[in-house]
Amino acid sequence: MEKMKERIRTFFGYKDLFHELVSKDIKLKYRRSFLGYIWSILNPLLIMCIMVLVFSHMFRFDIANYPVYLIIGQTIFNFFSEATNKSMWAILGNASLLKKVYVPKYVFTLSTVTSSCVNMLFSLGAMLIVFIFCHVMITPWILFVPVILLQVYIFCLGMGMFLSATTVFFRDIQYIWSAVITAWMYVTPIFYPIQQLPVWLQRGIKHLNPLYSYIQQFRMIVLDGACPDPRLVLYGFVVALTMLVLGTWVFFKSQDKFILYI
Amino acid sequence: MDTDIAVKVDHATVRFNMATERIDNLKEYFVKLVQGKLMFQEFLALKDVSFEVKKGEAWGLVGTNGSGKSTMLKLISGILKPYKGTVTVNGSIAPLIELGAGFDGELTARENIYLNGAVLGYNHKFMEEHFDEIVDFAELRDFLDMPIKNYSSGMAARLGFAIATVVRPDILICDEVLAVGDYAFQQKCEKRMTDMRNAGTTLLYVSHNMDSVRNVCEKALWLDRGVIKDIGAVEIIAEEYLRFERE
To answer: b/e for B145-180, b at 16 or more Cβ within 10 A?
Structure first.
């Protein structure tokens, strides 16, 4: 417990570094490109348009407001995918720095996940455009969205800590993870309705896929204009916090050995 | 612990991973896998080293390449943890283990000053206050908004040194960083280090330039292949070391 308090105190000492690392990522993301930050909105819109075209005309699903349905799932899943992929390299990519100066190592993972979060916040602009275009009714429940995003952030942070620590020792994880993310994308009902799947699979997804819970909460707010199911919210928080505790524990246990393997 | 002592290294051993990548055949791969030597081969960079540095002293570390000098400095800075033994440090440390640690080539000098400052633990406001002082010491006012990847190595070294010495730390650790600068830069850095020493900062300095070591330090430590070969006044150690080198 004392160690945790000490860690939190150290973190406040390094909060400027955290701030600098996140702003560096954001500044460099679109530097020397013509359209710059417009891509944060344009990119998700383009992908959504492609998916709407493909799935409305090639496969027939009976989903009202398909673009809205799609972009919600896409935004959340992209955040998860980007945050985890970048955080795998958080420690290895900063190896040269870690070998020269003492810096608390978790700051790197924390800053990569946070900069992915900031990117996601920019892309909420694309989501807003789609909502307006599809005449979605905005109810007061929209104020619950930050709570959902918080759950996703905590979950991504836990997963990111776990991945950044394990990739140092087993570089193989990057290849395993790309397969895992692909499978995860198909197992999450982003572009198809969950009712299309056999019942046993539906039950499996509802119990084991936290991303389904987050996406479903968001959809309930926007498409149904209703309060999200409290069981989903509870499940979401429990899984996110468990992942955070697990990831952080693995990270702190192994961080003293990082220097030998980077 | 005695508050008079700035750094105390007590029977410290530092173990590294050689990570050799030579596997000639499949049999060797399995043998190494079973022995647990596939990803980790032990190498002891420092073996049972002990010494003490009192506050305000200026120590030089000399030795051939690969003797463990940089490892010793990293141990004291907290970058490496000792495999055996302890290291205790009393006071704030400014490590100059490589200039531009934390520099990101894509960012401009202005942005890098804040980033590098944050890496060393200085907050944004502090860097803002000392911004002009840093730029003037580094003589880079015309190049502030240029990405660092386009800088010459001397320019980057000047910037790195200026940022790292902007504050008066309790302990300054300087590792062979002056080799890349021109004569004027080396003089400037030596002067700053001597000023800091006179103001009471403890100094640990690694260099292959014996004149520089003699100018800046009063005591010296000679490391050879991870073990302390000798320890004492800088003149004596410098003599012995040069005699040894020439043989």
So the answer is: eebbeebeeebbbbbbbbbbbbbebbbbbbbbbbeb
Range of the domain at A228: 2-261
Q: Any idea which architecture B100-168 has in CATH?
A: Orthogonal Bundle (1.10)
User: Does B107 contact A24 at a Cβ distance shorter than 8 Å?
Assistant: yes
pTM of the complete model: 0.85
B224 Cβ contact partners less than 8 Å away, ≥ 6 residues apart: B63, B64, B67
Of B228, B238, B229, give the one whose Cα is nearest residue B60. Answer: B238
* B218 interfacial to chain A (CB closer than 8 Å): no
pLDDT in tens, chain A (262 residues): 677 777 777 777 788 889 999 999 888 888 888 888 888 888 888 988 888 888 777 776 677 788 888 889 999 999 999 999 999 999 998 888 888 788 889 999 999 999 999 999 988 988 888 888 888 888 888 889 999 999 999 999 999 999 999 999 988 899 999 999 999 999 999 888 888 889 999 999 998 999 999 999 999 998 888 888 889 899 999 999 999 999 999 999 998 888 888 8
The dihedral sign for the CA sequence B120, A88, B109, B148? positive
- pLDDT of the residue at A149: 95
Contacts of A14 in chain B (CB under 8 A): 118, 121
The reply to whether B100-168 shares the fold of B1-92+170-247 is no
A117 Cβ contact partners less than 8 Å away, ≥ 6 residues apart? A79, A83, A149, A153, A156
Helices (H) and strands (E) in chain B, counts: 9, 9
Number of domains in chain A: 1
The C-alpha atoms of residue A178 and residue A162 are separated, in whole angstroms, by 15
Whether B106 sits inside 8 A of A28 (CB atoms) is yes
Closest CB to B124 among A16, A97, A99: A16
Q: Which strands, in side-by-side order, build the sheet including B93-96?
A: B93-96, B171-175, B202-206, B58-62, B219-224, B227-233
- Second CATH level (architecture) for the domain B1-92+170-247: 3-Layer(aba) Sandwich (3.40)
So where are chain B's domains?
Answer: 1-92+170-247, 100-168
